[in-house]
Amino acid sequence: MNLVVRDLSCQYGTVPALRGVSLDVRSGEIVVLLGPSGSGKTTLLSLVAGLLTPSGGEIRVGDEVLSRPDFVRAPEDRHIGFVFQDFALWPHMTVEQTVEFPLKMGKTPRAMRRRRVEDVLKLVHLDGLGARYPHELSGGQRQRVAIARALAPRPQLVLLDEPMSNLDARLREQMRGELQDVLRHEGVTALYVTHDRLEALALADRLAIVDDGRLVQVGTPKTVYDAPASVFAAGFIGPAAMLPVEVLGSADGGGVRARLGNGVPVTGPGLPFRHGHTRGTWIIRPERLRVVQPGSAPSAEVVLPAVVRSSIYAGSHWQLELGVLSGSCAVTAYHSDPIARGDTVQLAVDAARTWIIPEEDPRRHPFTVLNGAAGTELADAPA
Amino acid sequence: MAANPSTGEPPGRGTAVRRWWRVGVGEKGLFLAAAVIVLGLVVLPLCALLVQAFMPHLFNVPASLGVSLSGIKSLLADPYALTAGVNSLVLAAATAVLASALGALTAYLLQMTDIPGKRLLWGFVWLLLIAPSFLLAQGWEILLDPGGLTHALLGGILTRVLLSPAGVMVVLALKLFPYSTLAVASAMDGLGQDVVHAARLSGAGPGVVWRRVLLPLILPALMAGGLIVFAEVLSDFGIAATLAQTANFPLATFSIYTSLEQFPVNFSQAAAASLMLVAAVTLAQVFQRYMSGRRAYTTRWGGNRALAPISLGRRRGPIFAGALLFMLIAFGVPAGTTLIASFLPSGAGGFAPHAQLTLANYRAAFAVSYGAGAFGRSLEYGLVAASLGMAATLIISLAWRRTSNWLTLMLQIFLTSAIAVPGIVLGAGYIFLWNAPGFRGLGAYGTPVVLALAYMAGGLPYAVRVVSGSIAQIPGGAVNAARMSGARLLEQMRFIIVPMLKETWLRVWLMLFAGVLFELPVSQLLYPPGSPTLAVSIVHQFNGQQFGLGAALTVMSTAAAGSAALGVSALIQRAGRRRRPSRPAPASDLTSEGVQAS
Ligand SMILES: Nc1ncnc2c1ncn2[C@@H]1O[C@H](COP(=O)(O)OP(=O)(O)OP(=O)(O)O)[C@@H](O)[C@H]1O
Ligand SMILES: [Mg+2]
């Protein structure tokens, strides 16, 4: 069943947590909400679940109105599955009783309940563990119980609030694939919250980037990664160099013409140029950068001199941190070998596969910090 | 973005419904039920009393809103009430000092030394803590039986010693010192080895360590324990109505009782006296909270390692013997005399020489109108009031977890502070309320209904405190998960909250049941004419010198409470066994799962 959220807002006391969010989740689709801590992801999920009351806006599932300014349906009447971050299992119920509980509340006949519980437990690979209590399960198994409980009554919509955050890194990777299979198998519509971008990229049919109570961008993972709608979205979905540019106009074949601070011209795809744009940000993903011998770069590529600041070993490659534009900007690139600190190298940029965002003032965003955070995450996952 | 016009049904902004009702009708009903219970059971009776103190003519037939201090004036002019008030304050202060000394000593021995038999001694401390004061006092009174052995041996000495203000103080101190023991022992428990080591390394000898380091850390707890004892003496009715009365030593709670029993009742004076008593008790409790709060802060110093126990060396044996003797006097004498007297021919009483053991008292207990009926009645009251009280507690705790607004906050504060209200004052409030115009017409006054309501009210503040504490430990996710599974309010209670807190319910139920079974002041004021309760009956037998009969009733009721306790703990054990971890789970795991630490 499709979910429609219109102009939804919510505040805690006088503090706004959500400021006019509109989102459509199509039937059978997995939409991942990705955003920094405190951006309002849990709030949005709780509003859809009915655990919070919105201060404005509307929520519908299918033809059914769940919440309107004059009407709020109680969570127990919404038929929505919810997987809680801490699993929220009941210590006094066995796995079977837990998974059966929503079916019992839904007045499903006993025999059908039994069959469904069996099926769902098999689906999440918990067959044989039905008689166990939560404290007799491992973390991963508990999480499967939570998922099974949410799926058992065939809800029209499943909400998942950082379901992996209590699992260790390896288990998380394994569960990522399994969860996707389970959700696809059941064909449910899902709204999934995470702040792990790798999880988001792997699971999402579409991504919704949340920042400060607003949706910044909604699109397929590839769109958000390659064509971010804002500097914030660009930085949040993955590591990127963000170089300030002077925007000159639109290019002939679409795209934006710009000029770096050192006078080097840059032409590449980007957000549409509009009259009045003068400044901009040039977004370069690390994989679009290569360290080249002087003079060996294809003429289509932009070449920048850069000073190596550090080389960090990341298993499959070395991650170089470099300073460009006389050291005023930081850039991350991948290379097969370490390079001595202080060396000057040539960086070739495949400008056709970068992204230019006119007008945004990059000084508002501490991109070096974003880069750093993204870099550490990358270190434990092959690029 | 504006509301999508293609969806039909534009949002109607006209209906302004308050947010907390919107989440469902169940919430609203729960909230209202909780408010009605607290208002009806606790707030209204106490307000009736407050109003009577300052508007003496409000409940008169031509009602008058005139505010006057005549109640307080007549209280100050009444020599009996005044004496009783002063007696209570002096007695409370003196008892607090004596009990603090006993408490500090026992706490020191039990917490800081290697004295043997700690479990046994702690057992006595807990027995004294839960024993009703009037039963202990009457155990002592049996010794005074003129026909008994002690009287024969010691003549009138014991009578003169025990039946004096000092005797009353000693009996009270022997009953109440465990409060001080608990407070001081927990402070000592918080002392770490590092505190002592640091002082030793700075060159302080053992004496200096005690004087300059340990005592200052323990002192706030000692003060807090003393203040608890002070407040307990002021609120006590059990000893005021028995031993103190026999000793002709009027105390405040008893003077309130007598002023309500005489005719015509000076309602405004009784109300003023009740208010004064509540004020004094509240003051002591507020002060005690303040001291305890400071203590909790101070004792964080000290490192993680507990103090190594101080070795008593060769004096271990004698000191243990002394401590055991003390406990045997404090608990063993009253309990023992009661048990023995219950098997001795009534009238002879006490340790009569050459007396034959007999069950006559128990037979009589079932035959006498003031006996068997009372026992059965109190059991019924206990079952009904504890069960209804439990339900009320559940409703209140749940409602207050779900909704918080100014009304719940007010009621919460009121119920919390109602813990400071002595039973006799609560009972007085019930007399005032159920005799007030509008309530009098219901004809409930003087019936078991009002008494049962008062019993519920008496237990409610404690029960709500314990249950809210446990409910607060249920993670919000557990309840939300149930709601997302489609569980409505009643189903959430039935399948999630009640089973998760099974042990708490059983404990609280037992506490309420035992509390009703032995309740004296409210019963004394409100029992339906001709149908006394157990405690009233026991006191009646003792006042009529029917020691054997009174003792038999005491033993019977203690046995009933004891078997209820055993039954409940068996249930708790069974509940615990079913979900005991089959392999050790780390504590952090359990808390994240929401297994309540009870
Ligand atoms: N109960 C509350 N009272 C007041 N403010 C709250 C409450 N819950 C959340 N907030 C605030 O609302 C904002 C959004 O919170 P929310 O829990 O939705 O964030 P989130 O995106 O889920 O963050 P995280 O990734 O850390 O879980 C935050 O600024 C938070 O401080
Ligand atoms: Mg969150």
How would you describe the overall organization of this protein?
The complex is a heterodimer of chains A (383) and B (598). Chain A starts with a strand and ends with a helix. In chain A, the strands form 4 sheets. In chain A, strands 7-8-9-3-10-11 form a 6-stranded mixed β-sheet, sandwiched between helices. Chain A has a 5-stranded antiparallel β-sheet with strand order 2-1-4-5-6, covered by helices on one side. With 383 residues, chain A is of the alpha+beta class. In chain A, helix 2 runs parallel beside helix 4 (139-151) and helix 3 (110-123) packs across helix 4. Residues 364-383 of chain A have low confidence and may be disordered. Chain A has 9 helices and 21 strands. Chain A has 2 domains: 3-226, P-loop containing nucleotide triphosphate hydrolases (Rossmann fold, 3-Layer(aba) Sandwich); 301-349, OB fold (Dihydrolipoamide Acetyltransferase, E2P), CATH 2.40.50.140. By secondary structure, chain B is mostly helical. Chain B has 2 domains: 30-59 and 368-543, MetI-like fold (Orthogonal Bundle), CATH 1.10.3720; 79-315, MetI-like (MetI-like fold, Orthogonal Bundle). Helix content of chain B is 72%, strand content 0%. Chain B contains 27 helices and no strands. The longest helix of chain B is centred in the N-terminal third of the chain and has 34 residues, at 79-112. The chains are: A alpha+beta (383), B mainly alpha (598). Adenosine-5'-triphosphate binds at residues 12, 15, 17, 35, 37-43, 195 of chain A. Residues 12, 15, 17, 35, 37-43, 195 of chain A line the site of adenosine-5'-triphosphate.
Give the SSE layout.
The complex is a heterodimer of chains A (383) and B (598).
Chain A: E1 3-12, E2 15-25, E3 30-34, H1 41-49, E4 56-61, E5 64-68, E6 71-72, E7 80-83, H2 95-105, H3 110-123, H4 139-151, E8 157-161, H5 169-186, E9 190-194, H6 197-203, E10 206-211, E11 214-219, H7 221-226, H8 231-237, E12 241-250, E13 256-260, E14 265-268, E15 279-284, E16 289-292, E17 302-313, E18 318-324, E19 329-335, E20 344-349, E21 355-358, H9 367-379
Parallel strand pairs in A: 3-9, 3-10, 7-8, 8-9
Antiparallel strand pairs in A: 1-2, 1-4, 4-5, 5-6, 10-11, 12-13, 12-15, 13-14, 15-21, 16-20, 17-18, 17-20, 18-19
Helix pairs in contact in A: 2-3, 2-4, 3-4
Chain B: H1 19-22, H2 25-54, H3 70-77, H4 79-112, H5 118-130, H6 133-142, H7 149-154, H8 157-162, H9 165-189, H10 193-201, H11 206-235, H12 243-246, H13 252-261, H14 267-298, H15 316-342, H16 360-367, H17 372-402, H18 406-417, H19 423-434, H20 448-473, H21 476-484, H22 489-500, H23 502-517, H24 521-526, H25 534-543, H26 547-578, H27 587-593
Helix pairs in contact in B: 2-14, 2-17, 2-18, 2-19, 3-14, 4-9, 4-11, 4-13, 5-9, 5-15, 6-15, 9-11, 10-11, 11-14, 13-14, 14-19, 15-26, 16-26, 17-20, 17-23, 17-25, 19-20, 20-23, 21-22, 23-26, 25-26
Adenosine-5'-triphosphate (ATP) is lined by residues 12, 15, 17, 35, 37-43, 195 of chain A.
